[in-house]
Amino acid sequence: MGNHKIQWHLIMDFVCLVALGVAEMLIHVIPIKPSHRGFFCDDKSLQKPLQEETVSTWLTIVVGFSVSISVIILCEAVNAKSKRRKQQLKVGKFNIKCGPLICTPTAWQRRTFFLLFMFGFGALITNLFTDMGKVTVGRLRPYFIAICKPNATLLNCSQGFITEDICTGDPVDVLDARMSFPSGHASFSTYCMVFLALYLESSMPTKQTNLVKPFLQVAFLSLGLLCSLSRIFDYWHHWGDVLVGMFLGTLVAFFITFRSLRLFSSPPCPKCYPTDEVDFVSRNPVNNSEERADLNGDNQFPL
Ligand SMILES: *[C@@H]1O[C@H](CO)[C@@H](O)[C@H](O)[C@H]1NC(C)=O
Ligand SMILES: *[C@@H]1O[C@H](CO)[C@@H](O)[C@H](O)[C@H]1NC(C)=O
């Protein structure tokens, strides 16, 4: 059962997650200056008015996480109740000891945990890539001139391309106005909603209805799309930023669901069940398929 062994593979997974989380946090904590890009004096695309955000950053994060997490937990809990799934998930008792704490998660709880773990991992990857783009590219936001408030005496439009730092606005806001590419709202909301749509596709019990699943998928995808589009009509991003953000989020969502979680591959695939103890991902194929062959040990699930 491995109850008394130290779960090294788990510890390594957490280390990876934490390392990624720390890297992501450092980008925000350390005030890394984005690339300093110049602009054309007559560039109309940078002279949009500064408006309130329709969808704030906090709203995006809170809705993205809470909707995704609650849908996954709900769906897994309902699945666990089904008779067929119960048989599939029949595995031995499994204890996790952590000092005086002992918990005995059931199979569906372990599967849910693994799903959420990988979901969070993907969200971190999405944000990390987004922030790397923001800092290295340093594209100016559509409202850049409104925030920058260029010093009129230094602004010499006959020079054409202006590279000197002539902004008189709040330096913190000016730095933020230099991080347009790609859109973080677009990449995060698209990641969450594409992940959810793919997850529902693989794991939602449908019974006799034909339209409930696609309806929910369309609803979630619309939510992500609206959040992304709001960045364009708010003049907070150029359309290219949003397009690339959506592409990035979609890519990571597909990677996590297909490659890491293997939601759609039908076992047995010999490579999915290596005896090697270390390979976490392939040793733990979370699989929805109703035709799951057999579960013969604890190693099918994390924890
Ligand atoms: C604009 O630049 C000039 C010349 O460097 C300087 O004297 C002036 O104080 C600046 N104005 C503002 C509002 O910063
Ligand atoms: C603006 O730049 C042009 C070309 O560099 C120069 O001839 C002109 O004197 C400058 N005007 C001001 C007000 O600095």
Automatic annotation (TrEMBL):
Signal peptide feature range: 1-23
Positions of the Phosphatidic acid phosphatase type 2/haloperoxidase domain: 116-257
Keyword Membrane in record: yes
Coiled-coil region: none
CDD domains xref list: PAP2_wunen
Record localization: Membrane
UniProt-listed PANTHER family: LIPID PHOSPHATE PHOSPHATASE, PHOSPHOLIPID PHOSPHATASE HOMOLOG 1.2 HOMOLOG
Protein name (record): Phosphatidic acid phosphatase type 2/haloperoxidase domain-containing protein
